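Field reference: sequence -> structure
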Amino acid sequence: MIKIKICGITNAEDALGAVELGADALGFIFHPQSRRYVLPEKAKGIIDQLPPFVFKIGVFVDEDPQVILKTVNDCRLDGIQLHGQESPEFCAKFRRRVIKGLRPQREEEGAKIADYKVDALLLDSYHPDMMGGTGTTFDWELAVAAKMFGMPVILSGGLNPENVAEAVRLVKPYAIDVASGVETFVGKKDLNKVRDFIEQARWASD
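Structure field:
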């Protein structure tokens, strides 16, 4: 069954609500320039309230490795998502589960995927000024092509309850990731949208 990650979590109500509705993973953004940035100490307080078996992922953008490891340990994160210009060599530094976020604009850029030896690839929409959470739909054909490299593909970028079923049927990704598509406003999830998103994704994957 497809895995579902709700990203950009900033408060306990959204975290617990998403888990209750069936989310497999939660994403906490530790990039200060993000509109969904959460302080590590606040993230830790949210994570301490979560039930077991929920995968907690920290999202970092071109961060110092020591800062990443400290945040991972302090917040008891299960995985690291590197969403900047990190090289394959940089990604290989961590003895943790690593997701590499990429924002390819064209198929030839997608060929760079082969250089990464990570646990999963997250494909997101390109924006010149934003590293994620743009609300712009990713090119699903590029995602289909990326699967040929043999790594699990997490589809992101512009997904919402209205289009997620079509995306799942076309791409058949390992997992899907959503932030802005289930929000009331930036940083606050609409749990009705979260429920509809998860239900549509599960239905399409079945």
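Note: Residues 130-134 have pLDDT under 50 and may be disordered.
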